Amino acid sequence: MLDIKNVEKTFNPGTINEKKALNGINLHLDEGDFVTVIGGNGAGKSTMLNMVAGVYPVDCGNIVIDGFDVTRLPEYKRAKYLGRVFQDPMTGTAADMQIEENLALAARRGKTRLLRVGITAKERKEYKELLKILDLGLEERLTAKVGLLSGGQRQALTLLMATLKKPKVLLLDEHTAALDPKTAKKVLDITEEIVQKNNLTTIMITHNMADAIRVGNRLIMMNNGKIIFDVSGEEKKKLTVADLLEKFKISAGEELNNDRILLS
User: Fold this and answer.
1) Are 175 and 204 in contact (CB under 8 A)?
2) Sheet containing 201-205, strands listed edge to edge, beginning at the edge strand earlier in sequence
3) How does pLDDT run across 237-259, given as a tens digit for each residue?
4) Domain 2-94+149-263 class?
5) Coil, strand or helix: which one is 95?
């Protein structure tokens, strides 16, 4: 479903601020793979997701989604293949629009817009059923402005919007990091339910090593723009946080020095 082939990316080349963000990344995801990604600051995690999404052009290499080479496609033309949820709950929804209007925008993504009634009774009924999955009572608040929702409610709604059209690849960029622990667990549980129900191919960046081990069927560790550890299946299930720290030390040749990860 996704192939990242020999992708490299350097920011500010030839200047004092030159930064090699990706150094020949290779990653293959089968349909339905749920991959968690961990690594320190500057490891290249978010840059890898941005390369897939088309936010930045690659310096070299190829990105293939479901057999189609999207390397040269701009971000807006890749949107029909992808769903994405960012770390900031304020990103991904329109605060001044109603819950049902936000869902309608997500449902119409990639379609031709026509001059007709904005939301039909049939659509409103469908949105109510979708929102019940979240178990947050939002199905009874369809006309509420999204800006009135809590961070966790907005993030859950963003997740629902990102997966409404069954994307080829779902990109989750630390989407629970800005939430309190209880709300983060709720959103992560909803994530697992939606991904499993729709068999979505998913990449989830997280700073929480326990979550990285527990969630998904595969885990990769990044450092200095490279994938330094890749584990899946039963081997992944048997990992502990101490194992991951040791794997990082062996693969990177140094101790993991990142407070957010270590304190999680």
Assistant:
1) yes
2) 82-85, 169-173, 201-205, 34-39, 218-223, 226-232
3) 888 888 888 887 777 666 666 65
4) alpha beta
5) coil
